[in-house]
Design brief:
The chain has about 625 residues and is mainly β. It has a domain at about 570-620. It contains two helices and 52 strands. A hairpin with a 2-residue loop joins strand 49 and strand 50 (about 580-585). The longest helix has 23 residues, at about 600-620. The chain starts with a strand and ends with a helix.
Length: about 625
């Protein structure tokens, strides 16, 4: 219930609540709230905040991946955040928006290798490792990392025991990578086998709306225990760069935050130089708590693209394979090709890019040439006779049906373009292939009759200029002109046809006329007609009467015109009278037969009834 407050005060102006709550039940309009006795207002409990226009209280979202309902709950990520939903449910999780990534407590704009930057934290490529690149005017490989190819910065193994995944990671004399332990060794050394840890993924917890995470309340006089800090919502939360343990009693380190081994507990995470991080040449999960295991061989199984980044940023986890549905790593074919010598997916170099052999170079779908200068430095260039245009090497003089990359190549046949779906020179919109040329379709632009090669078309000047149209007396249907009835005015009354009227009668004059396609019949009889067995007839549940096809309307059914009324083989006996299909006066209605009887039958019935009547009277008088 609510109490009304009187406003009594000697002050010049007093502003007070008109209504206030007295019990929690009064706060049902703000789901999950309680009644504050001191203020008379409905408030969310400490650690929760109102969402959905003040209709529900939900737990605050202080961390990356915290459950959320609305974007504003994720504001502790500073900027570029969103409440991301993976389906249509109301509950989402706090993540960074598109083209941003999370690191050290906030969302940063993502800057790829070689692009201009202002801070180290901005540098992150397809291979998720925030320590592999640093900002030096542009994002480059960090100290201690080497560039295998653009955007692929890998940790250098300098001595035996350093982490590795590939032999090339171990950059000291005779160094190779032991794939059993992912450690650098001297070539020829046989280390003791080491069991692999089980491949597990961190579990996910389903959080319900209004469900409160148990947290300690705090205020100015009741501070939080270290390392927790008091939030504006009145509960203790972990500092930026840390997150709560499941029981809410500890602050665990995110990847990139200072930590000891006890608080760096993410999947495969470890402490290096006092920082919680992933081992070298493993990759960072987007949640910045867990590490992603690197796939060791190109043929090994994978579950996500991150597993395959051992083989460069142009690698991915391929589609499931028959018969068991296992997935293995693959190169992204649009960008790269597998290089078994260097064991990675090698990016194609475009025009002007550096190269060693021709296979390093590609422009679009075309493998182009690697041309060496006097110093032996290779540069990708177009072969002789091809034109460089927008990163492509284009041919010229291609005709209809030839393979192409760009419309500029399709010059041998007029009115052609390069169809992006088939990569073939095809006729432009408004044209069709006809004996090796592209001729205007009906409605296509033209300048003279000779341009219109479809039979029975001519070049006419209309509202949109000169176009190919069917000649008078012909009907356009499926890019051809058929003999038919041109209907200039819909439903033009037949009795008004004159030599000056817009109606021109040709071969298809109406019902039962010879036809080739239904369009001829539709022009003469309307949409409810068809061409069947080369004759124009009315379509199913329609009948022909008074020059048109009408819906079948039977005796005693409602009607609006006599043309609708139908009686099998005797339409002349039925009329539309008083909005009902009835027998004409001269054709009596037989309720037993549900038909209109002919006049002769009616007379016979009357005579029989009269004789029966006379016989009945005679019997009564006898």
């Amino acid at each position: 219930m609510y109490d009304r407050l009187g406003v009594l005060s000697s002050s010049p102006l007093t502003i007070s609540s008109v209504w206030r709550c007295t019990q929690n039940a009064d706060c049902d309009s703000l789901s999950g709230s309680v009644c504050d006795g001191a203020t008379g207002g409905c408030l969310c409990v400490p650690g929760q905040q109102p969402v959905l226009g003040g209709s529900a209280c939900v737990d605050v979202a202080p961390y990356f991946t915290s459950p959320c309902v609305e974007d504003h709950q994720c504001s502790r990520l500073f900027t570029g955040f969103e409440c991301r939903r993976l389906n249509t449910t109301a509950l989402g999780s706090c993540f960074c928006a598109e083209r941003r990534h999370y690191f050290r407590g906030r969302c940063w704009p993502t800057v790829d290798f070689g692009a201009a930057c202002t801070r180290d934290e901005e540098c992150l490529g397809a291979i998720r490792n925030p320590f592999s690149m640093s900002c030096r005017g542009s994002c480059q490989c960090s100290t201690g990392y080497y560039e295998r190819q653009r955007g692929d910065c890998r940790k250098i193994g300098l001595e035996v025991g350093d982490s590795c995944v590939l032999d090339i990671d171990c950059q000291f004399p005779n160094g190779v990578c032991d794939l059993a332990r992912l450690r650098c060794i001297y070539n020829g050394t046989t280390p003791e086998p080491e069991a692999e840890p089980p491949v597990e993924e961190p579990g996910t917890q389903i959080v319900q709306l209004n469900a409160a995470v148990p947290r300690v309340t705090c205020n100015a006089t009741t501070p939080c225990e270290q390392p927790f800090e008091c939030s504006s919502s009145g509960v203790c939360i972990c500092p930026v760069g840390y997150y709560e343990s499941p029981n809410g009693q500890r602050c665990l380190a995110e990847l990139g935050s200072p930590s000891d081994a006890d608080n760096c507990v993410g999947f495969l995470a470890t402490v290096i130089n006092g920082v919680c991080t992933c081992p070298p040449n493993l990759f960072f999960e987007e949640n910045m708590r867990d590490c992603v295991r690197a796939t060791r061989r190109f043929t090994d199984s994978c579950v996500a693209d991150n597993n395959c980044h051992t083989f460069g940023p142009a690698s991915r986890c391929g589609p499931p394979k028959e018969p068991w549905g296992f997935r293995t790593c693959a190169c992204i074919p649009e960008y790269a090709v597998w290089d078994p010598r260097q064991t990675f997916c090698r990016f194609f170099s475009g025009i002007g890019g550096t190269c060693e052999v021709d296979s390093d170079c590609q422009a679009g779908q075309l493998e182009i040439h690697c041309v060496k200068n006097v110093d032996g430095q290779g540069m990708c260039s177009c072969p002789d006779g091809l034109e460089e245009f927008e990163g492509l090497c284009l041919d010229t003089g291609l005709g209809l049906g030839d393979s192409c990359q760009h419309t500029r190549e399709c010059t041998a046949t007029a009115n052609t373009v390069c169809d992006p779906r088939s990569n073939l020179c095809a006729c432009s919109e408004g044209y069709q292939a006809n004996d090796g040329v592209c001729s205007p379709i009906i409605g296509g632009t033209c300048s003279q009759d000779a341009d219109c090669v479809i039979e029975n078309t001519e070049c006419k000047n209309g509202s949109v200029g000169f176009t190919c149209e069917c000649k008078e007396g012909f009907l356009a249907y499926q890019d051809a002109c058929w003999p038919g009835k041109y209907l200039g005015v819909p439903n033009y009354p037949p009795f008004l046809i004159t030599p000056l009227s817009p109606i021109k009668l040709t071969e298809v004059a109406g019902h039962n006329s010879t036809c080739s396609v239904s369009a001829q019949c539709i022009a003469a009889l309307g949409e409810t007609s068809v061409c069947e067995n080369n004759l124009c007839i009315c379509s199913g549940n329609h009948h022909f009467r008074d020059g048109n096809c009408w819906p079948v309307t039977r005796l005693m059914e409602s009607c609006s015109t006599i043309s609708q009324c139908y009686l099998t083989s005797a339409q002349e006996r039925v009329v539309c009278r008083n909005g009902i299909c009835q027998c004409d006066f001269q054709f009596p209605y037989s309720e037993e037969l549900n038909t209109c009887l002919p006049t002769s039958s009616a007379a016979s019935i009357k005579t029989s009834l009269f004789l029966i009547f006379i016989a009945t009277l005679a019997q009564i008088n006898s």
